[in-house]
Amino acid sequence: MQLPDPGLVNFYRLAENRIVYLDAEIDESVLELQKMIFNWNLEDKDMGLPTENRQPIVLIIDSPGGMLDETMSICSTIKLSKTPIYTVNVAQAYSGAALIFMSGHRRFVFPYAKTMIHSGGTTGIGGTFEQTEAAQKLYRKQITEMGDYILANSKIEQKVFKRNQAKDWYFTAQEAVDYGLADEIVTDLDSIL
Question: Which residues make beta-bridge pairs with 87?
Fold first, then answer.
């Protein structure tokens, strides 16, 4: 008889309590997180639980960011979730991870965690002139949508955002609260569990 993998045991114990991690670069694999959110919403709906009686999903974030399409898909799923989702930045929520962090129904940040927003990374666009031109046009539109999303989900004033959007803009935990990226700094793990 073989003992179960401790990593799997830990994953299932946390998932049983609706605690999941985004602790890697954002790529297609994060869509597994989306499936879990759908599943918990379906479970709560089938039980007839009103929103205020649903056990929150806690999304622990420590990610450098990643792919924009997958990021916005997860952001939309979190925003549309009837089951409350708490996002918790425990170390870094950079780029796309910051957008996911900002999508939480309640947003918590650890005292020494950092958040970073910017206007996007390199695109790696290739192909014919017409193809690259079309791709650049789409990317420009996505960057505008991303800026609108940041402004809608924070207290950042548009003129301040415009002044800082071309750089990697880092926020300490307190600055994340001050600018409305986070609701509060975690002082006790019980507040998020």
Answer: 59, 107
pTM of the entire predicted model: 0.93
Structural element, H or E, at residue 169? strand 169-171
Residue closest to 69 by CA, chosen among 131, 138, 125: 138
- What phi, psi does 92 have (nearest 5°)? -145, 135
Helix spans in the chain (H): 6-16, 31-46, 68-80, 96-102, 129-152, 158-164, 173-178
> 3-state class of 52 per DSSP?
helix
Q: What span, in angstroms and rounded, lies between the C-alpha atoms of 111 and 174?
A: 8
Tens digit of each residue's pLDDT (9 = 90 or more) over 136-182? 899 899 999 999 999 999 999 999 999 998 899 999 999 999 999 99
> Residue 113 to residues 11, 150, 163: CA-CA distances in angstroms?
23, 19, 24
